[in-house]
Amino acid sequence: MAVIDFHSHILPGMxxxxxxxxxxxxxxxxxxxxxxDVMLATSHFYASRHRIEEFxxxxxxxxxxxxxxxxxxxxxxxxxxxxxxFPGMSRADRLDDLAIEGSRAFLLEMPFDHWSRSDIxxxxxxxxxxxxxxxxxxxxxxxxxxxxxxxxxxxxxxxxYVQINAxxxxxxxxxxxxxxxxxxxxxxxxxSDCHRSDRREPxxxxxRAVLEKKLGTEYIHKMDERGSRxxxxxxxxxx
Length: 239
Description:
Elements: E1 4-8, H1 21-33, E2 38-45, H2 52-70, E3 76-84, E4 105-109, H3 117-128, E5 133-136, H4 149-156, E6 161-165, H5 166-169, H6 172-184, E7 189-191, H7 204-215, H8 217-232
Parallel strand pairs: 1-2, 2-3, 3-4, 4-5, 5-6, 6-7
Helix pairs in contact: 1-2, 7-8
């Protein structure tokens, strides 16, 4: 059973996250102090900007640079991507290469504009026809978009996972509704969504502390067990 940060921009020079291997090391040190065992390196992937082959090559170079200074220190890193939704993605080639390393889990960022029935059908196809275990990134960031309320409900009816940013649990405004989602089984994992060591820094420990205080230690343990199962096997898991 591992403490997993399900969302980070830890790889140096990949996106708007860490700018150097040295900054990545500082971020890893901060995460280690908070008890994190595994960090998912989920660099942004935009189909409109990136070819998968080029993205994978850049990602590997960034991971190699970090590995040179990291050695065996700190949380283990599992490569993945934060894949921005795009029309037709459910039929796109090589999506498997963007799944989290060693699994069929797939971190999906939905659009920050109006959704449609076809968007939901794309996600459904990813799950039922492509066999991905979809994790919706920071769902709380869309919950204020009233025009998408029914589509959010439709997504939550699908057998998928929801990742919440730890920072959102630190906000009194958002904490109550998010705790209800965790309690009802509509939210499943936490991610720091960390970008740097000086701002938007690793903060998974603070978010976990809120969950543990409000929902109990047993809840935290079950969340860690669920995440560990998801990343260790590629078959069916319980949502």
